[in-house]
Every structure is written in C-alpha cells, then in structure tokens.
C-alpha cells in the first residue's frame, strides 16, 4: 500500500497489513549441507504437509535427526488456506479472518447460510510458515535444506538412499510431500481411469481506497459471471471493508492464461464492487491448479516410504479442500512413524466416499447444472450438516439430508456410472478382456 493510499481520507488506519511479505526462516533451522549421513526421517518437500508432519513428529516426541529438503529458496506469501473450524488444529489460532455467514450466488438467487459454532476461517501462508518454522527451530534435531531439488530414492539395507541435486543421504524412513504436479501424461492417465475436474484459479489480495466489502460474510461461490468457457465462479474473502482476497475460479478443463484470469478479476471487481484499477492496490496474488479426482493414490509405495499431502491424495475430490485433511493425516502419520500405530508397514491407498465420487462425476458431466445444485444445497441442507459434509465429518443423517436436497434424477446417471466403475475396479485384471 502506498503511503498516499494508506493515509488517504477514505482508508481506515488499521488495515491489517503483512500480506505479500516473505518469511524470514530462522537461521538455526537452515543448513547448507546435511549435518549427518543418516537421518531418522527424511521429508522431501517442506510445504504445508511436510512442515505440518514435522511439527507433529516433534510434538509427539521424535528426538532423532530429521531432515527437510525443499527446492524453494524462500517462503513467500503464496496462498491462503480456508476451511471450516470444525476441530482444533495446530494453526487455526493464526486465522486472519473468520465468518459465520457465507453466500452462494447464481444469476437468479443469493443464498446465505450461517453456522455460529463452526466459522469459515482463513489463514495467510506467511503467517503459517512463520509460525511453523519458528516452532521447528525450537527443536535441536530438525534441519531444513532449502534450494535443493530432491531427485529420487531407493531401498537399501535398513533404510533408504535419498538423492538430491548435490547430496546423498540415508533415512530410516522417508516422507514424500513434494506436492502433486502431474505431467500431461499422468493427467491423461488419471482422466482415463478415474473422474477428474481441474480446479484452476488466480486470486488477488486487494486493499481498496473506499469501503466496499461486507466483512461479516464471505462469498464461497458467485456463479453470476460469464459461464461460456466453462464452470466458473468468483470467491471473495473480505478481511475488512477495504481488504479482501478475490479469486477467479474455473472448475473446467480449459486453458486460461494468467492475463485472462486477471482481466476477468478486473471486470469482476468493477461489476460487483464498482472498483476501477486505480481504486485498489494489489498486496499479493496467488494461483493454483488442484486436480479434483477420485483417482486412488498410493500412499505407501514402499514399506519405509509415505506419500502425504496432495501427493498422497489428501485433496477432497469433490471440493478441492485439503488443509484440514493434511492436519488430520499429520498426526496419524507421525504416530505411525514413531511406531505408535499398528499400521506400520501396511500399504495404504486413499479412497473417497461414494457420495463424493457421485458428486464429482456430476460436476464433470453436468457443469452447467452445478450453480443451481450448489445453491439448492446451501439453501436446503441445514448449515451445520452441510459444514460437516464439506469437512469430511458427516454422519448418515447429514448424508440423507444432502441426498434429499439434491435433484435426484439429475444425479442418477452419475451414480450409475460411479457404480459401474467401482464394479469394474473390483474385477481382477486377468479376468478382464
Ligand atoms: C494458491 C492455493 C490456495 C489453496 N487454498 C486452499 C484452501 O483455501 N483450503 C484448502 O483446504 N486447500 C487449499 N489449497 C490446497 C492445498 O491445501 C495446498 O496446495 C497445500 O499447500 C498442499 O500441501 P502439500 O504439502 O501437498 O504441497 P505444498 O504445500 O505445495 O508443498 C510441496 C513442497 O514441495 C516442494 N517441492 C516440490 N518439488 C520438489 C523437489 N523436487 N525437491 C524438493 N522439494 C520440492 C515445494 O517447493 C513445496 O514447498 C490451496 C492450494 C493453492 C495452490
């Protein structure tokens, strides 16, 4: 924010700044070369899941040497994590904003839904990174190697050999959390064998010269935008009347350039809030590509290797939400690595529920009907039930409420397709023609 803008007549003094600023990594945590040849745990990728797992391990008593390897050279403010506050996590106290009311809009209706006890919360990446790196630095047995590409790993006697661009280290256990960055070939393969809907988005973190946002509610999906290229919506997380994250989201396999996303955001800010480019300053931006899929991810490719985070299938297939799932699996994985769980050595795959698969199939096959379906869902399902469903905590009654609210005939075809595919998946390969 320029000084002129910050002190301008219309902008309140107390704008919560700090977004867009990279985090200073504690010196004591970072190493230039590995400090030992053998680690108890080597974690490839020190992003959301790698860092969350590392803290879980330490808090649960890991005292042996742990090495985190990441190719990044800095911790920029590269994303905003939002989810419903349905259970305690190590990070929810960092939330910059929380809303007990959320809105879904279509061209013809606006649906508001509220749940006082389970607000929708939003965390800035730089707050998360600053906090978790600070916590890790309190422990003498963890080290972070940055700017280093992990290349691969292989099994050796009593452990794994791990190769990075410059080094070779050994680990008794290896955790791969390098994020899901599928190649086109892998995507084609996923699309052939499972349902997938690409979620592509760009968000701008803006501060405006006059109050325009309703800070007491967030907009989860505003479908009242041009839908000709594919299913698209606006997502608005207001932190105050003059500050918000505004995202342009596609749930469609369309090639949208960064410039096109930005042009659409510009026109969204103009049409929805009457903002011209001179009326706001961009504090930061973020972008993402999240494949929403019911593809079955192998979380244990080898007995001593665990894949976690998006690489381990942590993303909720029908929504793209991942953060809460990562937090849940961090504790489970930490317990297993520390030998406090019976799962040790078992090969795991992540599966998703039938309802999730049907919903995803429906999104893939009938995107034009999605705005009406979402609006109906938020209008007819009691907020607490819907929040539980969206946060993976729904019980049978919540599922029944959801099914009753949805147009059943529309979903019948998708349900049949999913059922057929499940049956086909169960037929052993050697019995298929
Ligand atoms: C912009 C954005 C916004 C999101 N918002 C939400 C949200 O609101 N709610 C939600 O639930 N989910 C959200 N997600 C989805 C998900 O929560 C995040 O993607 C989350 O960061 C995934 O964690 P991860 O550990 O799998 O991957 P990452 O956090 O991306 O971490 C992967 C790490 O691996 C490193 N790496 C990659 N390759 C190598 C290599 N060869 N060697 C060494 N290191 C490597 C990367 O540098 C990175 O640090 C969002 C995703 C994005 C991209």
TrEMBL record:
- InterPro entries, alphabetized: FAD/NAD-bd_sf (IPR036188)
Q: What is this protein called?
A: Lycopene cyclase
Q: What's the source species' lineage?
A: Bacteria, Bacillati, Actinomycetota, Actinomycetes, Micrococcales
């Amino acid at each position: 924010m320029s000084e002129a803008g910050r002190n301008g007549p219309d902008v309140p003094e107390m704008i919560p700044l700090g977004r867009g600023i990279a985090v200073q990594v504690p010196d004591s945590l970072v190493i230039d070369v590995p400090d030992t040849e053998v680690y108890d745990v080597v974690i490839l990728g020190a992003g959301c899941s790698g860092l969350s797992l590392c803290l879980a391990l330490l808090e649960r008593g890991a005292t042996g040497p742990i090495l985190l390897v990441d190719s990044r050279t800095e911790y920029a403010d590269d994303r905003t994590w939002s989810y419903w506050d349905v259970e305690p996590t190590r990070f929810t106290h960092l939330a910059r904003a929380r809303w007990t009311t959320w809105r879904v809009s279509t061209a013809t209706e606006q649906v508001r839904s509220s749940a006082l006890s389970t607000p929708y919360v939003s965390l800035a990446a730089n707050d998360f990174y600053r906090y978790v790196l600070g916590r890790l630095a309190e422990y003498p047995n963890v080290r972070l190697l940055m700017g280093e590409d992990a290349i691969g790993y292989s099994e050796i006697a009593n452990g794994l050999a791990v190769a990075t661009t410059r080094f070779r280290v050994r680990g008794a256990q290896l955790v791969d959390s390098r994020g899901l960055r599928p190649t086109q070939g892998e995507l084609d393969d996923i699309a052939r064998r499972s349902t997938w809907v690409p979620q592509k988005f760009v968000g701008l973190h803006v501060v405006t010269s006059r109050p325009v946002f309703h800070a007491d509610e967030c907009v989860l999906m505003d479908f009242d935008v041009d839908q000709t290229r594919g299913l698209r919506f606006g997502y608005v997380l207001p932190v105050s009347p003059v500050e918000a994250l505004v995202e342009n989201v596609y749930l469609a396999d369309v090639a949208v350039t960064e410039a096109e996303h930005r042009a659409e955001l510009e026109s969204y800010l103009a049409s929805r809030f009457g903002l011209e480019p001179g009326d706001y300053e961009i504090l930061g931006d973020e972008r993402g590509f999240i494949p929403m899929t019911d593809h079955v991810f192998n979380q244990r490719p080898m007995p001593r290797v665990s894949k976690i985070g998006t690489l381990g299938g942590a993303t909720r297939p029908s929504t793209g939400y991942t953060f809460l799932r990562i937090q849940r699996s961090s504790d489970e994985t930490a317990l297993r690595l520390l030998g406090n769980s019976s799962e040790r050595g078992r090969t795991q795959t992540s599966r998703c529920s039938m309802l999730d698969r049907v919903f995803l199939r429906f999104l893939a096959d009938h995107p034009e009907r999605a705005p009406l379906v979402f609006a109906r869902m938020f209008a007819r399902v009691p907020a607490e039930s819907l929040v539980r469903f969206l946060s993976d905590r729904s019980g049978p009654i919540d599922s029944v409420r959801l099914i009753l609210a949805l147009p059943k005939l529309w979903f019948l075809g998708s349900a049949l397709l999913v059922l057929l595919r499940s049956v086909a998946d169960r037929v052993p390969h050697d019995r298929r023609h």
